[in-house]
Design goal:
mainly alpha, globular
Length: 400
């Protein structure tokens, strides 16, 4: 119970105090996206022209990367080589993919479900966490790259579960900090060990020390944010009237970010109480790397472990680039380029990455659509419970 209170005290002490002001600055941008999320989904399903345009853009990108680009670099029939894959390695890759989404669900439950025994914690059980996880994956694919669609859906689900705006934003920041701290730590550790020869494999400067240095800066920023003192926030608040609005925005935004980072650090400082949560953060990335490992082995190629890890994380940076649907095309190109940089034969890289994307990206989409339909039913049940509780409370108040 003491550890649970520590989690809650971080959110309560270091988050913005004025709920109304916080709503105006931090949560409104997400709220606008989340409030009409379901309607946007319906509109998309009715908009045949948009669907056709999205599919056409995806097909063109896939053709450019897996048909035209191989011919430019002297490779032929990349799609035809898929028949050379050893089937049981593809099954192993699919099993790792299921593991990665399971780990993500556990991480979601641990951070966003919270520790306090209340209605939100009860509603965000493993079943609901799975539904949000898979539906968020599809939302990212359909609505935007870089995770924006998934963020909007997650926020929408948290609000429907009864979580306040401030707490939802704080925990979402904590969730992302934990998840991407593993990403940055892997880049830093494996980049240094590979470059210095402690781990075997090709060690290009652009694929080792440079991404390791960038990752180190990112981790330092996370730590620095956690130390933003409240007197600095008050100093920003005391800016002159000309800068009052900007100062207020900076105060609330910095408070939310700092609160989220501190909440993430509490999980790290109490590994016993947060063992499953931390395992979920590690498991998500480990599962993805396992999918990649199985994809290479399906074509009889044993990539050095450090190269496998660095190639994956360096290539996934391409997910930040614009894409018509959740990194389609950009991530493929980024991963191909990363492993070619590490000296892996192009004849192996292209079919292996195609298999990785088929297993890790395309196969989960039908599962995610089913989870989205299930989540809508779950949310309707929550709304019904809330309405019933409200009616009962009114009747009780009137009776007294």
């Amino acid at each position: 119970m003491a550890d649970e209170s520590r989690h809650e005290s971080v959110e309560e002490l270091h988050a913005p105090r004025d709920e109304d002001e916080f709503d105006e600055v931090v949560a409104d941008a997400i709220e606008v996206e989340a409030e009409d999320f379901e309607e946007r989904g319906r509109e998309l399903m009715r908009d045949r022209r948009r669907i056709a345009g999205l599919l056409a853009a995806v097909v063109l990108l896939v053709v450019a990367i897996y048909v035209i680009l191989p011919k430019v670099v002297g490779l032929n029939d990349v799609f035809g080589r898929l028949s050379d894959a050893t089937w049981y390695w593809v099954v192993i890759a699919a099993a790792f993919n299921a593991l990665s989404f399971g780990a993500y669900t556990v991480l979601f439950r641990g951070v966003l479900g919270g520790f306090e025994d209340d209605e939100v914690h009860r509603r965000l059980d493993l079943r609901a966490s799975y539904q949000v996880t898979m539906a968020g994956f599809v939302a990212t694919t359909i609505f935007s790259a870089g995770g924006a669609g998934g963020i909007a859906l997650t926020y929408w689900a948290l609000r429907k579960a009864g979580m306040s705006r401030r707490r939802a934003a704080c925990r979402m920041v904590a969730f992302l900090v934990l998840l991407y701290s593993v990403y940055l730590l892997a880049l830093l550790i494996f980049g240094v060990l590979l470059r210095t020869g402690v781990l075997s494999g090709d060690r290009p400067l652009a694929g080792t020390i440079i991404p390791a240095a960038v990752a180190g800066v990112g981790l330092a920023i996370f730590v620095a944010i956690s130390f933003i003192p409240e007197d600095v926030q008050r100093g920003i608040r005391r800016l002159g009237s000309r800068w009052a609005r900007i100062g207020a925005a900076l105060t609330k935004a910095s408070g939310t970010l700092a609160s989220g980072v501190r909440t993430a650090l509490v999980h790290v400082r109490h590994p016993r109480q947060s063992a499953l949560t931390l395992a979920g953060a590690l498991g998500w990335w480990a599962g993805n790397i396992g999918v990649l490992w199985g994809s290479f082995h399906a074509f009889g190629v044993n990539v050095p472990f450090a190269v496998l890890v660095m190639g994956f994380f360096v290539g996934m940076v391409a997910n930040l680039a614009p894409s018509p649907a959740g990194g389609v095309g950009t991530v493929d190109a980024g991963l191909i380029g990363a492993f070619v940089l590490f000296g892996i034969d192009e004849n192996t890289v292209f079919p292996a990455i195609l298999t990785f994307r088929l297993v890790g990206f395309w196969l989960p989409i039908p599962v995610g659509v089913a989870a989205w339909l299930q989540l809508r039913k779950t949310v309707r049940r929550w709304e019904s419970e809330t309405a019933t509780a409200t009616i009962k409370s009114k009747v009780t108040a009137e009776a007294t």
